[in-house]
Amino acid sequence: MADQTPPIQSLQAPQPLPPQPPIQAGRTNCHCAYCRIRALFGPVMIITVGVLFLIAQYSNSYGFGQLWPFLLIVAGIMKVAEAMASREGHPAS
Q: Which among 74, 67, 14 has a CA at the least distance from the CA of 44?
């Protein structure tokens, strides 16, 4: 009887997988104009508060109590810009 051994197959190293983006819980990286403007809202408000405190500190005629309405104005401008921004490329929800 002939020996029935299976033929030896050439062993090749497995192909490396392409790099995967890091997984973020419930967040996608969207780069549409709407999301970029929305992401700037917090930093712009913090900068505005800082500028208002700076003006109140170095001004003899203006205090923060008189300047706080500028926070509402800046927030409104940011919201209008957000509403007018294109959502082209925004992932479907």
A: 74
Torsions phi, psi for 61 (to 5 deg): -105, -15
3-state SS string for 2-66: CCCCCCCCCCCCCCCCCCCCCCCCCCCCCCCHHHHHHHHHHHHHHHHHHHHHHHHHHCCCCCHHH
Q: Count of CB atoms within 10 A of residue 52's CB?
A: 20
Q: How far apart are CA 82 and CA 33, in angstroms?
A: 8
**Can you give the pTM of this predicted structure?**
0.63
- Cβ–Cβ under 8 Å, residues 42 and 82: no
For residue 25, give both structure tokens: 């819980």
Smallest CA-to-CA distance from 73 within 36, 45, 54, 39 is with 45
Q: What is the per-residue pLDDT across 74-92, written as a single tens digit (0 to 9) for each?
A: 999 999 999 999 988 888 7
